[in-house]
Every structure is written in C-alpha cells, then in structure tokens.
Structure prediction request, 221 residues.
Amino acid sequence: MKTSILASVAVVAVVAAGGIWYMTQSAEAPQVAAATDTAEAEQFDVTEMVQGDPDAAVQVIEYASYTCPHCATFHANQYPQLKENYIDTGKIGFTYREVYFDRPGLWASMVARCGGEMRFFGLTSLMFEKQQDWARRESGDEIVAALRSIGKVAGLTDEDLDTCLADADQAQELMAWYQSNAAADEVTGTPSFIINGEKYSNMSYDDFADVLDEKLAETNG
Prediction:
C-alpha cells in the first residue's frame, strides 16, 4: 500500500463521550538525524513495541498500517515464520512501528496500545486477522465499535477503551512520533522494513530470511 505522508494539516480523531470528535494539528514532521536510532524516539512519550532480543546485533523495524491489506498479508504469512525462526529464538530484535495514513489506523493503534506491552502484539494480530471486518465499515462509529469488540476479546473493559480512545494528548503524541519516524526513514509505503539501518520493501519469507542470515553472518564475523 503506497500513499503520500499526511500533508501540512493532520486530522487526529479520538472517540469521546457522545461520539467521535476531531481536532487539527500541525503535521510538520520534526527533522531527526536517524530514525533507526531508538534514542530518537525517546523525545516522544510513546513506548516502542519490541519482540525478540532488544540487544541483538541484528535489529528489524517494521513500519505498518493497520488498514493496509499488504500488511495484513505479511502478518498472516511471513511474520509467523519470522517470529518462530528469528524473533522467538532471540536471533533478532523486532520493533513494530505504526503508520497513520488514515484515521481508522490511528484508532486501531490506540486500542492496540490500550492493552500495554503485554497485549499489544496479540491485539495487532487480531486486527490484521479481522481487518476486512472492521476497516471496511461505512462510518467511523461502526469502525470504532468493531475495534472495541476486538479489544474486549483481548480482555479490555469498556472503561479501559473509553479512557484510551478519549486520550487526545496521546493521539497527538502518536501522530508526531509517526511523522518524525516516517520522515527520517523516508517511509512512503507499508509494510516497510529497516534492517540494521538499511531500508527494504515488502518481500517473501525466503527473501527476508536471506537478508537476515546475511546480516547475522556479518555480525558474527
């Protein structure tokens, strides 16, 4: 899924009591020297979601949108194999960074992060698995209702979801964090991957494994 980064004014949508309300903010992306240096993300109050070994010599960053069909396909096919063979074995560190090409993608992120680090990747898998159900609803209210249902499957309560979806400050922080990362890593399509500082587009599992094996061989000397 390729599209341009959000332009000069971004619309952040948050669910509040009585429905969905909107707020505008400047979308001028702060310029950073290197998005792949995780220290850069610390300027934002956003938790990096990491699996595998955060200190491994090979680090992978995935940029993905919850509404991107190609991302859903990647998470249904390549990702489980990568998780089994490289992430769970501690060979690599794997960081998932959200991309917000649309408001439903932001809402989905706020629900996924509502469960904290413990539930994040499980909720992410559910959202991609059920993408055709929630992301294609006709109205924002229907999309949010479907996302709330996914959150409840993962054990979130209505109170949890009300609090997370009404957090306007967090919505703005997430948007600024995304824009900073995407601008620095030149992310214009999803899924995109940064592997030890080098950018890659979507690829098959075999191609992905070849790249990882090469990087691992390099680091092992």
